Amino acid sequence: MGISRDSIHKKRKTGGRRTRIRMKRKFEMGRQPSNTRIGEKRIHLVRTRGGNQKFRALRLDTGNFTWASEGYTKSTRIIEVVYNATSNELVRTNTLVKGAIVVIDSTPYKQWYAQHYGVTLGKTGAVVEDSEASRSVQRKLKKRQSTRTLDESIEHQFKSGRLYARISSRPGQCGRADGYILEGEELAFYLRKLDVKKKKN
Length: 201
Description:
alpha+beta
């Protein structure tokens, strides 16, 4: 018996059995889940209906993550999975799925921030650098610094060198683990969830 995505085999709302009007069809076929883990990149191609392809990621260790408030996207290393609303088993096994909360390396974003604003984010907090650049560049950096805002929780994460992010792509379908850095109310929500989880343990 293969995996089937039809509804013919399900019972009615009343609990009665449905009469099967036909056998299984190819277009109702399902496949095994990819269970993408963190590791050296390994992707299998799967032929699908109409001769199209799916990219089944079995192992991934990097992804493109967007810092939405700054409008900056960069490829960075995925360190671990810390929360998944579906199951703690997916956290224990470091399985990458859409909607998983992961920890990523903050280094590429820290480097860009220093270049763009002339401010270094580190263990001592945000430090304005003494730039040896031309006057025009210094004026530009000063103007950017005057309108610069950085959430305290994000700045605190930069001190540890790690950022919380959410995967928004489907690794088992497109072969990529892309997403966005958590900010604002969404970040606060998931930090509360992680605190509850720590207290239980």
